[in-house]
């Protein structure tokens, strides 16, 4: 499409309306005659943030909608009729002036931000017409001068852009520009003129093809994305056709349901699952005689365990959460309703909320609503299948102001808080009231530099256990030692192993972690004689089985914290199935020399490096001179002859 030169406008005919009003025919004649210039004006005033393609279509739409409504007379102020005419002689055309004013006004409206409580103006919405499907249209590219001017104009406000364009393209004086902007409802015209003064007056560039939305180039849209959308649309149409056919079938749809249960609303099992009177309530002393120590023997606790209305709401939201309910679940945890009556673990007031906790044999579900209503209710799920002992010892009851309160198992006799990064700091006792702990500072939502990691210490008849909050409904259990025989992380050796690496737990927040084990698998003498470095492997296991995370960490003598030098996911290394690990790090000595340090566990017979560093050594340790930035691949051989690869 090519724009044509604008023909000079004829002088007004005798009897035409030139004394302050313009009729529709006169405005339409001006629009058709000066259409290319009006569209260029709209294109230049529109905000560049719309993109070149949408600016082109919007500019055409604004000009095409600029005619007066109906056939009534449209008022025109004298100042609007100023500026150049088609031949630049300065004679004003009231019809053209009216159309130009409407174009400027709507182009400025298109650049206004959308407000949440205000109804959007028509110019702020994508144009209904004209429409282009399957093509991207944009003006021809100009030179470096046009690009520089476009960048300068994009930095201006909408009114300032209008000033520059009216001066350059329309050749209006500043007084005429002020009157046009005032009619276009611009509040601070002086500020707009002052802002436009900062852009060099290179008005001849405004006539460049770079700014001509009537002389366009065409390119296809994203063909692969269009193909995907077409397939999705066809699938949706097919699904609607099938649903319509099912609805249109007589009687019970396809026919008799045979052995299938009634519809959900009439299914006795489904109805029982939502009946608060059918909830399972375990005796408060059942855990004392049970051979099991899991969630199935937790009693129902809390002051609202008989509040049928609250329990009914919690069950209903679990089965059919509304659009305003905030639902969260650990990875791969089903969020659907219970298959039968769940077990009630807790119902009571906690802070400013009412909290209900259920257990259905696979998941723990926590429902919370404000005390003053149900708006803002939340529903959280955590997978706990197979949890026993320490893994079934605590559930998050409440989070507020960076603190967390826990509901503990009935067999827990004492609770405390300790900083995992400071093993010598001791334990601060937490009060237990009906199984609920006093608030504990949680590291789960902490941001910024990590200087410590608070953990929960619980004591029962079997011993003492450490649990950590990773931002989920149930905590993760911490252990230490060789993966084939991990021990509770409460002993002096395990606490000492964990201390420099406590902050690495932030790497597995929100991952559905069940346990995390820290294993100090090697010590390596540094080549500059400054002491021995420690190698530790931490492995996080998840409730779902996959998604495990392994970190190989390295700490030099005197270092407060370890550094993660290698990580891997979904690998058996450093775990009970494959209790072996090999990792390396590029290390700089105090003298400025670089070395490749690598270490495997005690079952490693030799270590080999290839790639950027080539060396080998018998045993489980390798020290090799290296260059800064060198990258090496590590392999090791176990005592049984099996080969292992180094973690990356």
Sheet-strand content, in percent, reads: 25-35%
Number of strands: 31
Number of helices: 13
Q: What is the average of the pLDDT values?
A: 86
What is the quaternary state of this protein? single chain
Q: Compute the separation of the termini in Å.
A: 57 Å
What class do helices, strands and sheet pairing give? alpha+beta
Question: Which descriptors apply to this entry?
Answer:
13 helices; five-stranded mixed sheet; alpha+beta
Characterise this structure:
This protein has 648 residues and is an alpha+beta fold. 23% of the residues lie in helices and 27% in strands. It contains 13 helices and 31 strands. Strands 12, 13, 17, 18, 19, 20, 21, 22, 23 and 24 form a ten-stranded mixed sheet that branches. A hairpin with a 7-residue loop joins strand 18 (463-468) and strand 19 (476-480). Helix 2 (35-45) packs across helix 3 (52-64) and helix 6 crosses helix 7. The radius of gyration is 37 Å and the shape is extended. The two termini are 57 Å apart. Residues 1-20, 76-81, 85-91 and 249-261 have low confidence and may be disordered.
Furnish the topology, listing elements before pairings:
Blueprint: E1 21-22, H1 24-33, H2 35-45, H3 52-64, E2 74-75, H4 94-110, E3 135-139, H5 144-154, H6 158-168, H7 174-183, H8 189-196, E4 216-220, H9 223-248, H10 268-273, H11 286-289, H12 308-319, E5 326-329, E6 343-350, E7 353-359, E8 363-370, E9 378-383, E10 394-400, E11 403-408, E12 414-419, E13 428-430, E14 432-433, E15 436-437, E16 440-441, E17 454-460, E18 463-468, E19 476-480, E20 487-488, H13 492-498, E21 513-525, E22 532-542, E23 549-555, E24 563-569, E25 582-588, E26 594-600, E27 604-611, E28 615-618, E29 621-626, E30 632-638, E31 643-645
Parallel strand pairs: 5-9, 19-21
Antiparallel strand pairs: 1-2, 3-4, 6-7, 7-8, 8-9, 10-11, 11-16, 12-13, 12-17, 14-15, 17-18, 18-19, 19-20, 21-22, 22-23, 23-24, 25-26, 26-29, 27-28, 27-30, 30-31
Helix pairs in contact: 1-4, 2-3, 2-4, 6-7, 6-8
């Amino acid at each position: 499409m090519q724009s044509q030169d604008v023909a000079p406008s004829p002088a007004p005919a005798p009897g035409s309306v030139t004394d302050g009003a313009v009729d529709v025919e006169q405005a339409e004649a001006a629009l058709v005659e000066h259409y290319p210039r009006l569209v260029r004006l709209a294109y230049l005033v529109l905000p560049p943030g719309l993109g070149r393609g949408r600016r082109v279509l919007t500019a055409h739409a604004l000009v095409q909608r600029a005619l007066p409504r109906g056939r009534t007379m449209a008022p025109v102020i004298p100042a609007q009729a100023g500026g150049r005419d088609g031949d630049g002689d300065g004679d004003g055309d009231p019809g053209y002036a009216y159309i130009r004013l409407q174009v400027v006004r709507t182009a400025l409206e298109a650049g206004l931000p959308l407000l949440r409580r205000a109804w959007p103006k028509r110019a702020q919405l994508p144009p209904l017409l004209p429409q282009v499907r399957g093509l991207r249209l944009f003006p021809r590219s100009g030179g470096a001068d046009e690009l520089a001017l476009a960048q300068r104009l994009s930095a201006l406000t909408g009114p300032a852009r209008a000033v520059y364009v009216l001066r350059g393209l329309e050749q209006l004086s500043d007084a005429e520009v002020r009157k046009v902007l005032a009619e276009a409802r611009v509040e601070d015209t002086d500020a707009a003129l002052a802002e436009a003064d900062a852009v060099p007056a290179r008005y001849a560039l405004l006539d460049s093809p770079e700014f001509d939305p009537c002389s366009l180039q065409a390119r296809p849209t994203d063909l692969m994305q269009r193909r995907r959308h077409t397939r999705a649309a066809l699938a949706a149409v097919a699904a609607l056709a099938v649903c319509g056919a099912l609805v249109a079938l007589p009687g019970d749809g396809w026919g008799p349901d045979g052995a299938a249960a009634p519809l959900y609303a009439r299914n006795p099992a489904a109805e029982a699952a939502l009946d608060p009177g059918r909830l399972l309530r375990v005796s408060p002393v059942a855990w004392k005689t049970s051979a099991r120590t899991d969630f199935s023997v937790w009693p129902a606790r809390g002051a609202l365990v008989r509040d049928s209305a609250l329990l009914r709401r919690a069950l209903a939201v679990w089965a059919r959460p509304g659009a305003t309910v905030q639902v969260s679940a650990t990875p791969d945890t089903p969020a659907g309703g219970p298959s039968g009556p769940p077990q009630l673990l807790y119902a009571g007031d906690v802070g400013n909320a009412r909290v209900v906790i259920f257990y259905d044999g696979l998941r723990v579900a926590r429902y919370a609503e404000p005390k003053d209503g149900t708006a803002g209710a939340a529903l959280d799920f955590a997978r706990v299948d197979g949890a026993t002992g320490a893994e079934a010892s605590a559930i998050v009851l409440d989070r507020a102001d960076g603190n967390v309160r826990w509901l503990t198992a009935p067999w827990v006799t004492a609770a405390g808080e300790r900083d995992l990064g400071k093993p010598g700091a001791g334990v601060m006792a937490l009060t237990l009231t009906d199984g609920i702990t006093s608030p504990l500072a949680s590291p789960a939502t902490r941001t910024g530099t990590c200087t410590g990691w608070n953990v929960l210490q619980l004591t029962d008849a079997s011993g003492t256990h450490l649990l950590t909050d990773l931002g989920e409904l149930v905590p993760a259990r911490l252990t230490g030692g060789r993966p084939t025989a991990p021990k509770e992380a409460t002993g002096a050796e395990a606490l000492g192993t964990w201390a420099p690496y406590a902050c690495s737990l932030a790497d597995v927040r929100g991952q559905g972690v069940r346990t995390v084990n820290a294993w100090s698998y090697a010590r390596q003498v540094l080549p500059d004689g400054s002491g021995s470095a420690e190698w530790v492997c931490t492995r996080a296991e998840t409730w779902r089985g996959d998604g495990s995370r392994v970190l190989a960490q390295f700490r030099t003598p005197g270092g407060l914290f370890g550094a993660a030098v290698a990580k891997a996911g979904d690998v058996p290394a450093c775990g009970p199935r494959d209790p072996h690990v090999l990792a390396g790090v590029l290390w700089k000595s105090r003298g400025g020399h670089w070395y490749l340090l690598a270490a495997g566990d005690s079952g490693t017979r030799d270590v080999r490096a290839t790639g950027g560093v080539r060396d080998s050594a018998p045993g489980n340790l390798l020290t090799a001179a290296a260059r800064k930035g060198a990258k090496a691949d590590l392999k090791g051989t176990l005592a049984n002859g099996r080969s292992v690869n180094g973690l990356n």
